[in-house]
Amino acid sequence: AKPGRVLAYRGSGQRDPSKLASSTTDGGDEDPFQIRFPHAILAGRWELQPQHPRLPSLDDAKERVSSSARRLPHYQLFPKPLPKALTVKVYQMDHGSSPTKICKSVVDEDIISNLPEALRDKILCCLPIKEAVGTCLLSRTWRYTWGSMTELMFRRADFASGNDSADDDRRFLKFTDMFLFLHNGPILKFCLNTVANEMVSTGGHLYRWMLMLSRNKIKEIQLQTSIRDSYKVPSSFFSCDELEYVYLRACVFTSLHLPPPSKGFKQLHTLRLEYVTVEGNSLGDLVASCPNLEKLNIRGLCSQSNINIRSTKFKVLKIEGWFTHLNLHAPYLTSVWIGLELNSDTVGASTTRCNFNLSPFIASLSDVETIRFHGHILECVEREFLILKQPKLFNRLTEISLEINLGDLKEANFALCLFQHAPNLRFFKLKLISRNSMVPRVHFWESIDRDVCLFQNVEVVGLFDFTGSFAELGFLKFLLEGAPVLRKLGIIDKGLDRNVLKNLLKLRRASKDAEILILEACFPH
User: Where is this region: Disordered (predicted)?
Assistant: First the structure.
């Protein structure tokens, strides 16, 4: 529609001024209209106009506007632009005036562009990084908006073409390099998800990126790299002194570049590491440089060194992997998860070489609510468990999960000690194993005084990989006779005989509401 021209009138034939209205069939002197296009809506309001012989019909006006819209630059450059509302007003003129003096105003009302800057940044951060950069084609307002995004997520999968994987890696690395080089403003969150570890580390990309991040007040770093190739943590990482959350995968920590405790990560509250190799006591030194660290989650730890971790701020601790020496002191933990795995070079060998101060560590806890010990960690238990000598109760302990051999006197004694010192225990799960088939038959659980009610508040119990051994049956009887409020007992068996299963259901129970569920081991746990 050209400026200075009334766009349309409603009806055909005699051009009666009373019929000059909108595209809607009902309405008053000012009726709204909408013209819909594939990716946009033209909306506005028609006003009554005096009769004029040059007024086109409404259908003609729609066709003209539609043709003009298809020729707009943004329509051609960006196939799916942001929704726009175009308000068209045709103002009434004095009777007899020239049609060239008729006024028309077109207002481009971009709702999203008028949002607060923080909200626009949040919208861009929710988009894939390539689409966020693509918004530069929308308008001048959006040309450089992507350059000030505060949260960045680079995913190698977004650059997959299905042809040459190496070429995809190069395009991904080049895009990330250029994005960070052109970025202007603080970066609060940086996430990298890639399998191109070798190209990232050997090409120096990661070191350049980390150096840029250390100068941008970074708060959160997540490097989700492939576990096939490990890389050394860049020294510039330890200059990001405003970090609050860190997640690193497939990396190597050395004490070479660690900062002193006085210049560490004073704001870091969560540290998550996966498939990490530790040299020396770098892990303990790293924790010491984080005075406010509350959550430490390590999966796939590999260390032959002496790891000494001490903290009075820890609330949640999870360590799984292979290590030879671990010394822990974190008295205010609420959740503990420790799992010791066997290294592939030591399978079948004794695990006594793993030194872990399990007894004094357990005895030092005061606020613990959840305890999980998996793998071979109970083989580190001393014959005389230290907690027996201390009149201490874990009043907040409500959940226990153990991987245990109930036929081993040392491990059975450890479990008994925990049950005795957890009066408010409500849930526990045991993954039953038999590491030594030559263990003699023992009457450990039968010898315990039945008048001592260890499971007074236990409600739910899970026994996994139940084989029906003498020790396991003895513990099961001891449990059912000493749990007055037990509601559910789930048993995942490993192909038990039907007669054994029937005998299990006939065992005497202290709780009249106790329900025994026997399931086959057909799913992982």
Answer: 1-32
